[in-house]
Amino acid sequence: MSTPSTDTLDGLIVGKSAKMRAVFDFIQVIGRSDSTVLITGESGTGKEVTARLIHETSSRRHRPFVPVSCALFSETLIESELFGHERGAFTGADRVKPGMIEVADRGTLFLDEIGELPLSLQPKMLRALQERQIRRVGGTKFLGVDVRLVSATSRDTAELVRKGEFREDLFYRVNVIAINLPPLRERAGDVTLLAYHFLRRYGRNREQPIEGIDPEALGLLEGYAWPGNVRELQNVIERACALADGPGIRVRDLPEHVRGRGRPTPVVPGKDLPLREAREAWLRVFAQEYLTDLLRRHAGNISQAAKTAGVDRKTLHRLLGRHGIKV
User: Fold this and answer.
1) How many CB atoms are located within 10 Å of the residue 281 CB?
2) Together in a domain, 136 and 165
3) CATH number of the domain within which 230 lies
4) By residue range, what is the domain housing residue 194?
5) pLDDT digits (tens, 9 = 90+) for 209-234
6) Which residues contact 144 (CB under 8 A, 6 or more apart)?
7) How many helices and strands in the chain, by DSSP H and E?
8) What are phi and psi of 161, to 5 degrees?
9) Is position 5 within any domain?
10) Radius of gyration of the chain (CA)
11) How many CB atoms lie within 10 A of CB 2?
């Protein structure tokens, strides 16, 4: 149960695969600029961690890093959250509230799931980025702001533009520099590194520290597809550390689905298709099976299912609809 050596960038991102080394190198380059960045990738791949790392390698690292999830607020609340409001701007506004853009002044604003930003609010965001000025809800004065925008999405933003759900001019403004984070299943060798990284975090919080992972358990971790990516692996290791009754994680400490139980192996479709089309067909089958099993395990409870999957309720509803799964 020896601990493998770990490759990290500023202790925030762990990985030694070729794809992650390319991400590391690119972050070091763009840290010297002040351009807007759009991070894409599946849920759980570490988009916020990447955004924080971009901030930490930039000249703004001594100023605030302010994260805001566009998927967590209603259309009326997100405007106040981002731009702030004046006293009396609406019922309950009994004081002046600076928005997160103001809070991030001279630092970095991270907009997670920017594809969920309401269409009605997008012109105001575009103006804030172009003119470096904002106006609070209910206010009459423009306030100067200096922020670097780093945004992220798990959706195809270009497709949203084609559908008219995202402004083309805003898309080009936020997509000056693009980073795509690879899913964990494409990061050869990183599962072991990440597993031990999380083991060091959670294995020490015990009367008898956990020092390693049994080879058979490690083999199951490496062979699992990780649809929830790094976030799912983190949850699995935290759970295993809580259940382990010895100095190491064993097979019995892993969830049933990681051990290959509790869900059938999906039939691989598209064997006669080109590789890219076959992969997309397989992922559709896998997603349908994963989401169906997720709902079954949580008896249809969307909140609990979303928490397990590491996404918000709105994203889970969208995924269920995309794959034709009814609650």
Assistant:
1) 15
2) yes
3) 1.10.8.60
4) 183-262
5) 888 999 999 999 999 989 889 989 99
6) 132, 133
7) 13, 13
8) -65, -45
9) no
10) 22
11) 7
Q: What is the pTM of this model?
A: 0.75
In three-state secondary structure terms, 124 is helix
Q: How far is CA 95 from CA 80, 81, 84, 203, 292, in A?
A: 12, 14, 11, 45, 46
Give the integer Cα–Cα distance in Å for 327 and 324: 10
CA distance 54 to 150: 8
pLDDT tens, position by position, 114-171? 999 999 999 999 999 999 999 998 888 999 999 999 999 988 888 899 999 999 999 9
* Token digits of residue 8: 């990290």
Q: Roughly what angle, to the nearest 10 degrees, separates helices 190-202 and 215-223?
A: 120
CATH number, domain of 58, equals: 3.40.50.300
Task: Please name the amino acid found at residue 175.
Answer: N
Q: Tell me the mean pLDDT in the region 44-66.
A: 94
> Is there a contact between 250 and 241 (Cβ–Cβ < 8 Å)?
no
pLDDT above 70 as % of the chain: 87
